[in-house]
Amino acid sequence: MLKVNDLVVQYGEAAALRGVSLSIEQGQTVSLIGSNGAGKSTLVKALMGMQPITAGTVEFLGENISATPATERPALGIALVPEGRRLFKDLTVQDNLMLGAHHPAARQRSGGDIQFVYDLFPVLGARRKQLAGTMSGGEQQMVALGRALISKPSLLILDEPSLGLAPIVVEEVFETIKRVTAEGVTVLLAEQNMQQALALSDHGYVLAEGTVVLEGSGMELLTSAQVREAYLGGA
Ligand code: ATP
């Protein structure tokens, strides 16, 4: 479904991605892990068309979308849950969700259906009239996920959904993500929280200094001595 070939992204002279290749099959949950500054956010931005590509290609559903403007990518069926959630805190939960269907193509795909989001996350249905800013951190992440799902995307990209949240809320966020993956949605999950991300992933890529240094199934990476030593605090 998504194929990234030899992607290079530079900020001026500095290369943030130095030839990254990866692929995601339909229905898979794939995580992109790596420490702070490894290049995860840069890759997410490049996939969304928010960061120009220096070299390489991005193929989505068999088409080269490397030059497709950011404004047209949601229409192709790629939805992003941005880092920091970016909700409109003074709008209600329902209004925030509806913003996910703002683009005409997204609206057409969703057919105005918001009920499936409430079925998936009943707490959002119960609190649909509540201002998003008054929800807990975990619930706000649920709203951000719901807003992305409203457009019925083929690929859902999550950028650091657990960043800055207390450990107990992090657990809640991963439970929420599991509910989404269980629906068969194809997910790319960029995360520093490697253990939890890999635990729910079919496949994972480890990024370091702008290159893929390791890849494997979620289980292989979780049990890999190299990953454990470098990122998970030893064996
Ligand atoms: P984080 O978890 O902090 O988001 P990351 O893995 O997502 O880390 P990136 O944010 O993609 O990493 O950063 C990759 C590299 O590119 C880092 O060295 C970073 O300093 C650099 N970088 C990121 N954004 C910019 C920018 N706008 N201008 C210049 N350099 C940047």
Keywords:
235 residues, alpha/beta, Rossmann fold, six-stranded mixed β-sheet, 11 helices, 10 strands, 26% strand, globular, binds adenosine-5'-triphosphate
Structural overview:
By secondary structure, the chain is of the alpha/beta class. The chain has one domain: 3-Layer(aba) Sandwich (Rossmann fold). It contains eleven helices and ten strands. A six-stranded mixed beta sheet has the order 6-7-8-3-9-10, sandwiched between helices. A hairpin with a 2-residue loop joins strand 4 and strand 5. Helix 7 runs parallel beside helix 8. The radius of gyration is 17 Å and the shape is globular. The chain starts with a strand and ends with a helix. The mean pLDDT is 89. The structure holds adenosine-5'-triphosphate. Adenosine-5'-triphosphate binds next to strand 2 and helix 1. Adenosine-5'-triphosphate (ATP) binds next to strand 2 and helix 1.
